[in-house]
Amino acid sequence: MREVAVAVIVFALFSFLLSPLLTASGSVSFVDGGLGLDVYVVALEGVEAQGVDNVSRVVEGVQAAVTALDWEGYKYWWGTEQAHLGTVNPGGNYTYWEESTMWGGLLGGYVKLLFPVNVSVHIISDWSDYRSIVESAGESIVINVHGETLPVPAGYTGEAWVGRIAEAMLYRNLTWVHVGGYPFYYYQQEDSGLEEWGELGFQQLMKHIGRANVTCESPSPSEKAYLSANAIDALIRGTWSGLYIEAASMDYPLKKADFEGKLAMNIWNPGVANYFTGAVIAFKELDNQSSHGFYVHVGTLQTFGSEGESTDRDFWRANAGCASGLWAVLGRSVAEYKLAEAEAVIMKAEREGRTDGLEEAYDLLNQAKAHYCRYSYHEGVITHTYRAIVKAEEAQTPPPPPTPALIDILGLSVIVSVILGSVIIWRKRNS
Q1: How far apart are CA 332 and CA 339, in angstroms?
Q2: Which residues 6+ apart lie within 8 Å of 321 measured at CB?
Q3: N or C, which end of the chain is more exposed by having fewer CB within 10 Å?
């Protein structure tokens, strides 16, 4: 494995060479050989939580989601028939072939991508620290354990503080995780008591991305929504295989139609009329804007296990919300790295003159870029860049064209043959 400094240089160089969508990206930084990320858990003394029973269990759910990364790092696996590549890039990013023992070996073999990460969890119990994070932190995740209650530090009105949060999400790639109930329904200022905001609080946030009239009212709160295929791909087939949430009640969902082009992942399947009780939203003003944070929404009030039993809602909502936020932030950065890596391997093949078969590699790379714009970081970007790298490595030097001298010799021989043939025919006719 090469030095981390080399990885940073390679990443910076090839990110520059990629399309403008990547040059404006929100990649997290490399720290100690992996991707570095801070997770801030806002648990302030004296703040009255709403929609949450046990703040301590919320904190434990967050910590469990981060701990899952400590076992192997950020990972994703998928079945494939492609050849084994081994370690193909600097910086500790491994792509390798494994024999599968899952489901009795029916998969035959699969490819697993591992990416080292360094995620630090900070419990924020001080108001000044909370204020400083929102005012200045970037490339990080903030999780509000107080549920429906938004803490507002001294010196800010509720509206002004929401504006600060929106600014951090839009321009400093801050990701905000809501862990249960109606988001921003209450606010509590540092020097006063709890106030009810109603729908206005969430609308204050969403107006910054042109969604000022959204609400979280559910057409069918008693209905259950089951874990989505997107979440299975992003979380279960990734780092968070232990996520124990089969279903969730349809409380306080987001309406799919309100977030067209901004839905990065639905955690649970849409219920009646396409409502999402859990989702990851790209918090951006423009459709082609790639540098932005995410809003992670967990509106449900109850989670359920595989047998339909109620589970610890505080723990599992926080666990799912944190895991989804980590997937969005780290997954985007891993996808960007893989795009840069594929571009580098293709360019290397071109420099070496191995252009025969390279068209397919370029096509796969372009498909991967399109998937990136649709937030398909795993099934889209990782698999397509992997295949693009395989095709680039398999590309061959085309056979050299005939040299001019050889062409002249071949041409002369044809002319001589034609002349001799004509002479023979003429002689036969006149003999």
Answers
A1: 11
A2: 143, 177, 178, 179, 278, 296, 298
A3: C
Q: What pLDDT, in 10s, does the model give residues 90-144?
A: 444 445 445 555 445 454 456 677 778 889 999 999 999 999 999 999 899 999 9
Token digits of residue 396: 């061959």
Q: At what angle do helices 313-351 and 55-72 cross, to 10 degrees?
A: 30
Helix pair angle (127-136, 158-171), 10° resolution: 50
The reported pLDDT for the residue numbered 16 is 41
Rounded CA separation 78/379 (Å) = 8
pLDDT per position as a tens digit, 53-82: 999 999 999 999 999 887 767 877 766 554
| Sign of the dihedral through C-alpha 370, 378, 3, 85 | negative
Write out the DSSP string of 189-254: ETTS-EEE-TTHHHHHHHGGGT-TT-----S-TTSEEEBPHHHIIIIITTT-TT---SEEE--SPE
Where do the structural domains in the chain lie, given as residue ranges? Answer: 4-334, 404-431
Q: Residue 155 contacts by C-beta under 8 Å, 6 or more apart in sequence?
A: none
- Which of these, 118, 92, 122, lies nearest to 36 by C-alpha position? 118
Residue 293, Ramachandran bin (φ over 0: left; ψ between -120 and 50: alpha; else beta): beta
DSSP assignment of 280-342 equals EEEE-SSTT--S-EEEEEE--S-EE-TTS-B--HHHHHHHHHHHHHHHHHHHHHHHHHHHHHH
pTM of the entire structure? 0.84
Pseudo-torsion of CA 254, 260, 262, 267, nearest 10°? Answer: 40
